[in-house]
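Input (cysteine desulfurase):
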Amino acid sequence: MDRVFLDHAATTPMRPEAVEAMLPLLGGSSNPSSLHAEGRAARAALDAAREAVAAVVGAAPREIVFTGGGSESDTLAILGAARATRSRGRHAITAAVEHHAVLHAVDLLEEDGWNVTRLPVDSGGRVDPAAVAAALTPQTALVSIALANNELGTVQPVAEIARLAHAAGALVHTDAVQAPGWLALDVDALGVDLLSLSAHKFSGPKGAGVLYVRRGTPVAPLIVGGGQEHGLRAGTENVAAIAALAAALVLAEAERAVQAPRVASLRDRLETAILASIPGSVVNAASAPRLPTIASLAFAETPGDALLIRLDLEGIAASAGSACAAGSAEPSHVIAAIGLDARFRAGVVRFSLGRETTSTEIDEVIRRLPAIVADVRIPVSV
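Output:
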């Protein structure tokens, strides 16, 4: 059987329609900032992509800024908004389970003299809106909470958090990188001022991203030079990648009503079978609202690195919820934050499904996984 790819939360294969949108623009020598016919053609492609992305998220085209990816979008949102609003106050709120692009950005704020509150989460990885309300102060300038967690799939109550933050006068950013094709992205329904996307998470190309910036939201550019992207991101745009991003995003949204329940059913079947066939296994964040794509499993007394290697040798691509340092398995910051029992922390594996995932592939993982876990599990001495 062909390899089974269950690491879509890390990256997704480019869909043919995105490649088709990209190819005609790869060989051109046109710059969308040029005034000649070639430049106008590139500008038309860029404008069409901006309009398509804006329509998906319910924004105006001018509120769409193209970036080099999700990490850049997160950094621009956090550092750019913070630098533009520092006169209001120097306090930011985020969650302990955020992507490192967010956590490292708020680290930089701290180095610049900001006070940062990193909120704890419950066992499902969810932020309590009441904790956000309690953390807000008159000096709070920014709240950044991801729409969906990349390790657990936990969906956060962003709309409620945004309502509380706005009542206190703070801006709200959400990292929505994992959401396209699986959750609605209406920025008005979410109530956010800033929203980040990354093309390669929804079958687009690597190296292209989006930052939605609500009209009137103050953001200072991090990359300066020309006036591209409404003055917020200097540098000649990667028109080919942006066109492919827009094509992939439009299709992901169009397919959401069919794909989201289909993939959720596959994920549920995978989790149910694993719990039934492998003693000492748990589903992380099982009780929380989750993306349909992510199944985070933990296996007691099982070294996660050995498990991932065996899975790979068996033709199954997955990823870990923990990182290894100096030969010692340490839980990721997300796994540490949810308080997973110590017996399970080293044996976390994330299976992340996508639109290409088939029932046959899930059956194959269900068939092979019990023996693999049994082989690598460390016997408990009695």
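Confidence is low (pLDDT under 50) at residues 322-328.
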